[in-house]
Amino acid sequence: MTLRVVVADDQVLVRTGFRMIIDAREDLEVVGEASDGQEAVRLTRELAPDVVLMDVRMPVVDGIEATRQIVEYGSRARVLVLTTWDVDAHVVAALRAGASGFLLKDIRPTELVDAIRLTARGDALLAPTVLSRVLDRFLRTTPDPAPPPSLQDLSGREREVLTLIGQALSNAEIAERLRLSEATVKNHVTAVLRKLGLRDRVQAVVAAYDHGLVQPRRP
Predict the structure, then answer these.
(1) What is the pTM of this model?
(2) pLDDT class for 128, splitting at 50, 70, 90?
(3) DSSP alpha helices (H): ranges in the chain?
């Protein structure tokens, strides 16, 4: 199956470069290009891509707001945010808006296409260079004083799994920690996402920090 991609960036050369990299792969295809966030939202509605490569800083509507609009109207597209700005506030804002991944624009071509494939599958994806600071930013965020009703729907084991997802553990690592099979862990992760109405694993990380399931690390 060919993965359909929309590229949103206000720089023509950047869009052209991404298109060349993506279209060179048999399983990937650029189906649309947008020069601003508003156009990105429109193309996502019209073309129903699997993944949207979204620049953060664009005219008319920025990438973060465009991501929020795409998520709010229920698109199945995963948004992969790319930016030259290695800034915590942008990372956090993009994730809170519903982005499924975050990468810097200096990523290698092979890493970019791998990121698109991972994002389309709903796997967690954050650039290693920014992951630790993203978590630090979440940890400094005051959690809600009481979990929302949806969190109460989780079983004790599912709450444990969500906490470990928030600690950036993989399914294999969670399985080892809890002495479960990976298949069982995968089922728990699926249940957590369904019960909390989360799009993917990245949003589960956000939820874990927002609800105080992960304790702040001391400086």
Answers:
(1) 0.79
(2) very low
(3) 12-23, 37-47, 63-72, 88-97, 109-121, 128-139, 149-152, 156-166, 171-178, 182-196, 201-210
